[in-house]
Structure formats: C-alpha cells, structure tokens
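Quick entry between incubations.
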Amino acid sequence: MRLLYSREAITKMQAVILVVIIIAASVGAAVYYGTLPRPEAQPIKIGFIGNLQSPYSLSAKAAAQMAIDEINAAGGILGRKVMLIIEDSKGQVPKCVEVYKKLVMVDRVLAVIIAENVEMAVAGIGVGAELYPEYPHILFSTIGSGDAIWNHVKDNYDKYKFVFQTYYYTSTGYLTVLAKEQLPDLFKNTVHATKVARINEDMEWTKPIRYGLPGVAPPVREIYEQQGLTVVYETTVSRDQKMFVTIFEQIAAAGAEVIDCSVGYIDEAAFVKQWSESAARNIPLYIWGGLAGMPVAWNLTEGKVLGVMVGSSLVRVPITPKTIPFMDNMVNKYGTGPIFGSHTTYDTIYGFKKAIEAAGRVDDVEALIHALENVREVAVLGTIGWHPRYHYNLPYPYYITPTIQWQKNGAMVVIWPSNLATGQYKSPAELRGG
Amino acid sequence: MLELLQSIIVYSFVFGSIYLLVSLGFSLICGILRIFHLGYGLSFVMAIYLTWMFMTELKLGVTLSIILMILVQFAVGMLIHWGIFQRYLEEEEKLLTLSLLAYLVFAHFANYRYPITAGVHLPTTIMYGALSIGVTTISYQMFIAAITAIFVTLVFVFIFLKTKLGLIMRAVSQNLRGSMLMGVNVGLTYWYAIILSTIPPIICTLTIAPFWSVDPFMGESMLSIAILIAILGGLGNLKGSIVASYAIGFIHSVVSFVYTSRFMGLVALIVTLIMLLVKPEGLCGAEKLW
Amino acid sequence: MVSLEFRRDRIVFRYGDQKYEWVIEPRYWRNPVIGALVLMVLPFLVYQYPNILTMITTANIYAAIAIMLSLQTIGTARLNFGPQFYVGIGGYTAALLNLYFGLNSALTLIVTILVSLLFAFLISPIVLIARGLYFALITLILPLIFLEITFVYGDIFRGESGLSGIAPLLNLGSVSWNYLAYYFLSLAMMLIYLLVVDKTMRSRYGLAMAAINDNEDVARTVGVNVNKYKILSYVIPSVGMGVAGWFIAHTFRTFAGITYLSLDFMVKILLMIIIGGRASIYGSIVGGYFVAFLEEGLRTLGPINYVVFPLTLILCVYMLPEGLWGLYHKRHYRDYYPKLRVRRR
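Done. Structure below.
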C-alpha cells in the first residue's frame, strides 16, 4: 500500500546544487555555441565527423589532424591555411545529422569527412543531398565500407555526385581482383590447397560476395570453381556471434584444405583463439581483413594467431615512400600507430589537396568534383584516385592491401604482393611444430 | 549421422555448462533478492579489466591481481547492494535503471582507458592444446571451463541443499514474511547472497577468457544469455537454470550443426518468447530457489 | 443536430441528443500554455544554429514517445521495456513504402497508423495474459527479435546500413525553412499527444485506469471493464509511437534498426521518464529536453563524457526522487505507478 505523500522530499541544498549543475551545463553549451567561428573567407575548412568513442574514428581523427598540420606547415593549399573542425556523432544517426548540418550550414565547410560506419555515412549522404543545392560541398566517407555508399552515386549521379568513398577495397575489387586472381593464386600455388571452406559474415558488404553482382561477376563460390578450386563448405556467421567451434568442427569433417573468411567486423580475436585449438587448427586460415591484421592481435590472442594469413594495411612495409613516415608519425600523434580508417582519411585529404590545386579554385564545387574524378596522388597505401563515374577509390593496383602471415614471435611477414614480400608462407603445423 | 549426433551432444554439454556458469549468479540474485540485476555484466567486465589494471599499472603478478580483483569485486557488490538494491527495493524501475547505469559507467570507463588497441587479455590458460572425443575436437581450456562450471554448480547445490545458510536462502526466496516470522535475519541473508553471486562470474570469466571475446561491452552479451536462461528455466530457480542452460546449449548446438550458426541467437530468442507466452513460469516453476 | 457552443468557461459540443463539455480552467491551463509558447518561440532564437534546431526537434520526438509510454504504463499497469519496437515498425513501414512504392509522406502516415494498429492488436493479448515482470520481459525481447530479422532479411531491410533516401515530410524550397517546419511539426505532434493524454487521464477513463492500477480485482468487482481499458491503453499509445517512428524516418531521411531498436535507445527513453518524473506526463518533456541538453553540454569534456553521462544520470536519480518534475509540482498526488515484482501477486 503506497503512502499518500512522498516522504523523500529533496532538501533545499540538494535542489540548489542540482539547479547549479543544470545551469552550468546549459551555460557550457551556450558558451560553446556562442563562440562558434563566424563564417570567414580565408582558411579552407574541412569538417570531420566521427564516433569519438570508437578507436577507429579516433585514429582517423589523429590521421586527419596530422595531414592538416603537415599541409599547413608546407604552406597550405593554394596559399591558404586549412582548418579542421571536429564533431562527435556519438554513433547515433540524429546526432550525426545534427552536426552535419552545423558543419555545412554554419561553419560553411568545403568538405565533410565522415569517418564512421556505413549507417552514418548513409545518413550523411541523405542530409548532404538535401543541403547540396543551397550549400554545395563535398562528402568523403573514409571508414564506411560496402556498396551502399557508392551505389547512391551510381544510381543517381546528379543528386549524389558530391559523395566520394575511400576504403581499402570495394565489392568490384573483391570480385574481379581478389577472388578471381589473387586468392586462387595464393591457395593453389602457395598454400597448395584446392578444397576451400568459405565463411561469410552476414553484413551488407558481403552480399556481392555471397550472391554476386549482376553484370559484373557471379558469387565468389562460382568464381573459385571456375579457377579450379572446389568449395566444400560455406556458411554465414552473424556479427555478434561468440562461438565458432561448431563451424570449425564441420569444416574439418568436410575435409577442407584452406579456410577463406570474408569477415571483418566479427570478434576476430575469439574467432582465431577458437580456431587455434579446434578440429581445424591445422587447416590454413585466410582472413580478408579486420582485427587480426592489427599489430595488437598477437597480444590479444596470446599468440594463437600464429599461422593466420590476413589482408592487412597495418604492416610496416614501404608500399610508397610515404608509408613508413606515416606509421611512425602516427605513433607520435596517436600513441599506437595507425588502425583502420587512418590511411584512408590521410590519403583522402592529400588527394583532395591535389584536386583543389588542379582545379585552381575552391568556390566552384562542380569543378572540384571534376578534378577529384581525375586526380592521382601518391598515397600511403599506393595511389589515391577515384572512379570517375562511381566515386569509389580505385582498387588494386592503385590501392594495395598486402597479405601478411603471422609467424614466430609475432612477426607479420608479408607474403603478397611479391615485390613487397618479406618472407615465405609456412603452414600452421610447421610454425607450431618447429 | 552418428558422428553428427555425437558432435551435437558433446557441444550441447560444453555450451550448456558454460552458459550455466554465466547465469548462475543472475539466478541467485533473481531468486533470493527478487530483483532483475540488469547490471549483472559488471562482474564480468570488472573481472577482466580490474585484473588487467592491477597487472599492468600496479605491476602485481597474475595471482595477486586476481585476488585483489576478487576483494574489490566483493566491495563493489556490497556497495551496489547498499546503494541501489536496499534503497530502491520498492521502486523497481529506478533499481533496474540504476543497475544498468552502474554497468554502463564501468564499461565506458574501461573502453576509454583500455580501447581495442591496448590488447587486453588474461593469461589464465590452464592448459593449451586440444583433445579429441570421438570425432569431435575440443580445446582443453573449453573442456576445463565446462568441468569447472559443473563443479561450481555442484558446490552451490550442496550449499543450498545441505547447509543451514542454504536452507535460510531457500526459505527467504519462497516466502519472505514466513522466514521473517521464523526469525531469519533477512538483511544479512541478502548480503551473503550478493557475495555468493559474485563468485560464479569471476570464475567464469577467468576460465573462458582464453577463448571468449574480451571487450569492454561483453557484459551485455553475458546479461542476455543469463536473462534467456533465467526466463526459460524459471526466474530465480536454480534447478531451472541448470535445465535451461543445457536446453539452450542443445538448441545452439543443433542449429549450428543442422542449419547455420548464424541463427543460433535468433532461434534461442524465439524459443524463449514462445515459452514466455505458453508457460511464463518457465520449465521448472518460478519464484522459488529450488 | 451538431453544434458547437463557446461559453465563458467551457466549450460545449452537441451531437444529436448527446452533449460533450470541455471545461477550461484558466488556472490549470496557464502554465502549460506558457510552456508551449516558450517552445514555439525558441526556434526563432536558435534557427541560425541548425544543429540546435535538430537537437530540439529530436528532443520533441523523444518526448512524444515518452509521453505515449507514460500513458501506456499507467493504463496497462505494466512496465513496457520495448517502446522502440513500435518506433521501429513505424519507421520501417514508412521507409519501405516510400522507397519501394513511392508513396508520399501523407499516404505513408495512413498506412503506418494501420500497420501499427494491426501489430498492436496482434500483440495486445499479452497484456491480458502476462503478469508484470513477464510482460516486461516479453517487451524486452520483441525488439531484439525484430533487429535480428532486419539482418536476416537484409535484402529488404538493408541490415546495418539502413534504408535511406526517404522523401522528406514536406518541401518548402529552402532548407532552413524545411528544418524550421520540421521543428514545428514535431512540436505539434508532441503537444497533440500531450493534450490527448492529459485529457484522458483527467476523464473517467483515467479514473478507471487508476482503479485498475491500484487493485485489478476490486476494479473488476466494481464494474470496470478491465480488459477493454488495458487493450485500449496498449493499442493507442503503440500507434502513437509508430507515428513517431514515421516522423523520424521522414525527418532524418534514413532509418536503421541498429539505432532505433537497440537497448541504448530503450535506456534513453526510460531515463527520460524516470528523470522527468515517474511516468508523469509533463515530466517526460522536461526529461527529454534535459537528456538532450545534457548530452550536448557534456560534449565539451571530450571522450570522457561517455563516463560522465551515466554518472550524472545516476546522480539525478538519487537526488531527485520525484524526478525533475517533482521540483515543480508541489502537490504529490496519489501515485498510479505500477509495480513489477518477481513475487506472487
């Protein structure tokens, strides 16, 4: 039976303290907004939106700041300084839409960089398309993966032509280069395996891999069969799955000789840890990308990642003269070196700089778009340039993601491409036994 | 066909045991204190990140860090009981939100201090390698985790069936007023229950860290497993938890082998929903501890 | 005969031989009218900062969801842990209809209302069958299942990218006018919900709901049709939440399950109710604006704000037992809040 009146009345002191907190928070917000820079003509402004709770966005932010500092130290673009305005989307779409509007309408940025997952980039595309007729700008997505972003440009160029996507790979790249030439070559000639087990993660970016792209390529399974490999097992895992041992059990029972994993967002530490002591532990494992390619994976998995092959852009090889200095400077700026999103952000900014210089002016965004479609600039991972019609960055051989294998004592040995290789492939059994 | 059956049985056993260890503490709190501890994931996250903090910042050894972590967890559990459970036992929505917020505070703190690039891991592997049971191969650590789970459950069952403290706890969970009439110190029993319920998550985390995922927000997945098992078996019912964990382990195992492992979680959710509609008390009856 | 009469202190509406009166109490309506006027004037102070405009539009939408949730909680005598389920249904319906069938926003509104009505009626028997805690658990699980389905049927729902390119609510030419219009529409939606819920609580429906909340069996003996009230109190707020989802889809032009069907969103809405005041209607608005402004204000702290945000909320819950609304509302009237215990009834 409830009491009629509440006895826990708040004391006057508590009420005062609380009101002070509320007023302080509001004043803080008001001061923050009151001191927003008024639209100025001089510096070139670039906006940055990321989820500052996630290490990927944080590393991209550090890379962006590093690029801007370097450009300003070298004299800026067209003689003008560049200013980076950083906003936090907190991983929520309404917040992302909010800060996007602020950057474009209030700060009048020339370009917005969204260094976050696909959902945020798609939300940004929506808002950007709405704002573009009155506030022309450019949108770069540097961490969002998959086709959802550049499909917008493909389907409606006039509405979405301001959108550019930079990522380590695209679906057409996966289907026409990775699955058609690079991986069959690796499996047949280096690993000496013809029976492949495939694992896909159930996300948007693997849809072309699982079902093919009409007009471009069939699903990866068929591409492998065409290249002389046999797919003995294929399955899908969900992003928040924790238990993979049953899959390895079935893979071993199917007699596979190599495991090909189109994964990037699942918990790869658990995946690798479970693989290394499962029925499939002597079957070579190839991961397309993700956590397993980060230097920290060795510690995370207590060395159980030994023998795993993974596509990684975080290995210390000089793909271009910019690669090693970039990695070293990122350690100074970010503390642990680059992780996903930092290369793409850094390269995008430099590519944008070259496009502005090629166009010669910043007030005509259409000319800038045209320049971006034709630019080629030396990047950390190769050459940065964008597809003239679809606005995704050009894949291999322009943008390179080497394949590494984890070998003794945490060494990340590059086994592909051959001009960057630092060692030979060894089977997991050999690495463990020897 | 026979190999498939054998694999399914072995993995049901392994999964079920691990899930049992995960949900033991939750069922305890649910049964004795009659509250839904939405901040249950806190024990798991603290087990990993506190130990890591003691190991790397205070430079203590593994064993010492673990002991210190256990003591800190007892203290935090008691703090949460005093600050949240005792105060808001009558206002459930505040209790639920506050316990969830407590978990969020620590998880975000761990994420801020030790993001993915810090490489947090616990060197608590007891045995490396894998063993073969017929056609299935299980890593030793997984097997040890399953055996530990069963051992801990047996200890708890012994406590509840054979000791006086267990008798008191069962009485409190069945009929609060009756126990008070019999002279039970309910407040003290609650303290004991909180301490007891912190132990299974710690043991669980220490044994499964070598093969489970370790990240600051792992408490959410642990909590959802615990909630599913609690619902399926009957809220707060220990016997129900045991039965339900193996049932869910079986479901996960069957779905993985016969269909695709991608649907493990969805099938378990739907089965639980059906159970909630058809027989809400769960498999073994709710609102009593045994 | 249908007629509308304006008297000095009431509005009378006659239909045939039935008479409906709405008594206007100026003293009662003074503060809400002042509040509404403040909210209507607010955008003109901040419209040159479109992000603040978006923030208060979002706050309005969240407050509307919270208001409907309050009505549902009080009316069904159960705590609903899954209000985001209907937001998801409304949002996805609007998005799918617009993208695949090209319907404009007015038509999608009608279909959204119908679809939410259908789902709410299908799920409403649970209100009658399930007791307090079990109802909360079922509503907790439903959005998670929906989220899984959006991933499994990713061809339609687009998984984690979400559906995008949804047509806007209306197009006034200039973008700034659009955003201003969105704010006023969201404000209108929230005020309409507020009006409806407030009048309901003060009518004999509200009295019946209070009786049900206090003691269902006694209410049944007195003659209150418990089942009818419970189902109505479940269905109508669910439709309201579906409409809020429709609004979100058309205002932000993108809708993804990950944002709106997850536990974070649920925690936010629940926090608005709790901090605003235990299921008090006006408190939800205060709670919504407080949470929105708190998030903004803490941003200046940098990445540590993710830790400070829950800490501040814990502090608020401790220090404000009646919520923020309790600071204003001096009269602590009888509390209709439902219980949810793991006990026998």
